[in-house]
Design goal:
Length: about 170
């Protein structure tokens, strides 16, 4: 599992470790081992498997609704067709050719994809709760707004995030 960060996946000069992480993701995906990239991790996975990254594209901050676009994928098993998630990104990705696009939002057509059998990239943050979301904000007013938006849908966000992580762990155990 590779999580997010404040940098863009293209910032390899400023953050040379991104090249190493991308190479790790490429090797792991080629070995068809279960892999989950979240936000920056999803962007790096897209790049590692032949997709593209975009600066300042499809940015979203706060609680957004995603809709499943791929029927029957085990990562999204038992999740509703539409569900709220935490999102906090300016940059985004286009998955590699041949990848299964699994979820989209109104602003972001690629919220989730699967490359190969078990390499998953997410643009949203199933690991984040309201406090973490608020901590990512630069201004107190924005943080308060984000915390309220999260609190209004906390039960659904947390339940669906647990389900998604349980589904991923089932893939790891296979």
């Amino acid at each position: 599992m590779v999580l997010g960060g404040t940098m863009c996946g293209l910032d390899t000069e400023k953050h040379p470790f991104l090249t190493e992480v991308t190479a790790f993701l490429r090797r792991t995906a080629e070995q068809e081992r279960p892999l989950l990239g979240i936000c920056l991790g999803g962007q790096l996975l897209a790049r590692a498997t032949g997709g593209r990254l975009f600066r300042n594209s499809c940015g979203e901050k706060g609680v957004v609704t995603v809709r499943r676009t791929g029927a029957g994928d085990p990562l999204f098993a038992s999740l509703p067709e539409r569900f709220p998630v935490v999102s906090f990104h300016d940059d985004s990705f286009a998955p590699p050719s041949g990848a299964a696009v699994l979820a989209a939002s109104e602003a972001c057509p690629f919220q989730a994809f699967r490359s190969g059998r078990s390499a998953y990239g997410l643009q949203f943050h199933p690991e984040a709760d309201g406090a973490l979301l608020a901590s990512w904000c630069e201004e107190e007013e924005q943080a308060a707004r984000m915390a309220l938006g999260y609190a209004a849908q906390a039960e659904a966000i947390e339940s669906n995030a647990r389900r998604l992580f349980d589904n991923f762990l089932a893939l790891v155990r296979e």
